[in-house]
Amino acid sequence: MARRTRTRLWDPSGRRFGIPTHPRKKVPPHLRTLRQLAAEGLRPGDQGPQAQVLWCSRVPGPPRVRAAYLYDVRLAMPKRTPGRRTRTAAPKGRTCPECLTQPIDHRLGVCPDCAEEAAA
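RESULT FIELD:
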């Protein structure tokens, strides 16, 4: 006998929820979550969510229905690779604006070496 929550949250045709809905262990093999796509080196591309998984969470307090959106792996595209400038750029706001090489001390606004030179 199936549990009530599984049958209550199962709508493969999408009539009740507007999008096909599956319980956690009954997802078709070609559908993946965003994290699963990212682990495979893919991104959803131009497709929107193709289905969803609904489940009741067990957090303290009243039960809450949670959702995870699913994307078709057959329509997914490879992840974009960053360009040369993005790969070689320093993290914004972390290098000294004076010498552009060392990390800054946020209290001083510059790196310790530049702060010593300014004080002298």
